[in-house]
Amino acid sequence: MPPPGLAARLGWPFRRYGFGANFLFLEEQSLMGDFASFIAALQEQLPQTAVLLDSATLQRYAVDEMQPRAVIVPSSTDEAAQTVALAHQYQVSLLPRGGGTHLGLGGVPKSLEAVIELTRLSRLLEHEAADLTCQVEAGITLAALQRQLAIRGQRLALDPPHAEQATIGGILATNASGPRRLRYGTARDLVIGLRTIQADGEIARSGGRVVKNVAGYDLNKLYIGSLGTLAIIVEANFKLHPLPAAERTLLLTFPAVTDAMRLVSAVLGSVLTPTAIELLDGNAARAIATRAGLSLPANGYTLAFDFEGSLSAIHRQMDETRLLARQHGALMGEDLQGAEQEAFWEAVRAQTSGELTCKATMLITSIAAYLQFAEQLCRRLNLEMAAVAHAGSGIVYLELHPAEVSSELLEALRLLRQQAQEGKGSLVIERAPTALKRQIDVWGPVGSDFPLMQRIKQRFDPGGIFVKGRFVGGL
């Protein structure tokens, strides 16, 4: 027999349950939990939805070495909603997927039955240039969206890595961001409305289409960063920004990280308004230089300041930054613009997504001491480290090598997390080999708010349709 709530909704033992013009007939015997019946119903009721079952495809869609039993690719929001409704009916778990750039984030899934990929939902639905807003489907890539917005001289001020592959839905589900978050914030600051598919297949809206939408609870912020555990994001409304008239990057080098961070504090305490401030250690600078085809100092620490606006305003801000830099012992570096500048920032973003990458958050004033601690720890444990920090936002990315499971690596991760927590921060292992994920909690210990998170998950997804195990505390 099906669960009582579902029986009441479907009219057990026999009732016609409709999806538009398509109908699913339930016989008296229960089909609940029957994966083969789920696939058969899906193919019968939604012939336009691609259902991929061949082993080569399933291997490509593996998550942490777990292959799904099917990959489902709907061609519309309605098809996606009907797919989720069928999964809910047959109690088949779903893992939402976009371009796959952030699938490394999260713990090992408890099970993986079906992946629902949203890349065919890739339209720019509306662009109200006069209002600086747009409405998009979740499967559009960030790069494709930016190209369409640029026609009207605008952009979405998000810059996570791999823009050509990362989809809007994946970016929102993981709350991915990049260096520009210093000036423009993250997705939670730029989203004004969402359209989502709930665990029972119902389509819901939150927020609105105008920037000054303040009515009701802000459910947008609940969905963003929830890793697809509460609902599937299928559309998003954003506030936009004009493309800057010009952009320049100033590079400075410091022999000591403490001097570099003192300059960061000085700039943040001034009237200067950089778009991004990135701190690179020698190993990261070397990797970025190779990737971007540039020459960067391999010793000491490099600070990169990005400025946008009119050329006159940029030159004034760069001159004032240089003046402050001399007072903090900086070695003057070159200025970047054009293709070199674009290649540099693309390489910086890519440097935050290595094979084993940790993301530590902390007070800005703690960054220097944290990096010194990390350097000493890695030398003691014979590990290699490359560090990139959003220096004005209190975020440090550490790439560690070798990534194979070892007592030294486990000890390093434990102490790096402990050090971050002692500084009132946290450490999340954003990317790691599956073998390592099975040895350590990538999210770290849960906080006092975890019972509330459990209640929210139970409320939004009582049947556990969205794959469990990947989010905080195994949610």
Percentage of β-strand residues: 15-25%
Number of domains: 4
Radius of gyration: 24 Å
CATH architecture of the largest domain: 2-Layer Sandwich
Low-confidence stretches: 1-32
Under CATH, the topology of the largest domain is which?
Answer: Uridine Diphospho-n-acetylenolpyruvylglucosamine Reductase, domain 3
Query: How many individual helices?
Result: 17
Summing up helix and strand content along with how strands pair, one would put the structural category as alpha+beta
Q: Which CATH first-tier class of the largest domain would you pick?
A: Alpha Beta
Mean pLDDT: 91
Give an overview in words.
- There is one protein chain.
- This protein is an alpha+beta fold and 475 residues long.
- The chain folds into 4 domains: 4-117, Uridine Diphospho-n-acetylenolpyruvylglucosamine Reductase, domain 2 (2-Layer Sandwich); 124-242, Uridine Diphospho-n-acetylenolpyruvylglucosamine Reductase, domain 3, CATH 3.30.465.10; 246-350, Alpha-Beta Plaits (2-Layer Sandwich); 357-437, Alpha-Beta Plaits.
- 35% of the residues lie in helices and 23% in strands.
- It has helices at residues 4-10, 35-45, 55-60, 77-90, 142-150, 168-174, 181-184, 187-190, 220-223, 257-268, 282-292, 311-327, 338-350, 367-380, 407-422, 434-437, 450-460; strands at 16-19, 22-25, 50-52, 70-73, 94-97, 114-117, 124-128, 133-137, 154-155, 191-197, 203-207, 232-239, 241-242, 246-254, 276-280, 301-309, 331-336, 357-361, 384-390, 395-401, 426-431.
- An 8-stranded antiparallel sheet has the order 17-14-16-15-19-20-18-21, with helices on both faces. Strands 7-8-12-10-11 form a 5-stranded antiparallel sheet.
- Helix 2 (35-45) packs antiparallel against helix 4 and helix 11 (282-292) packs across helix 13 (338-350).
- The chain is globular, with a radius of gyration of 24 Å.
- It starts with a helix and ends in a 15-residue tail after the last helix.
- Residues 1-32 have low confidence and may be disordered.
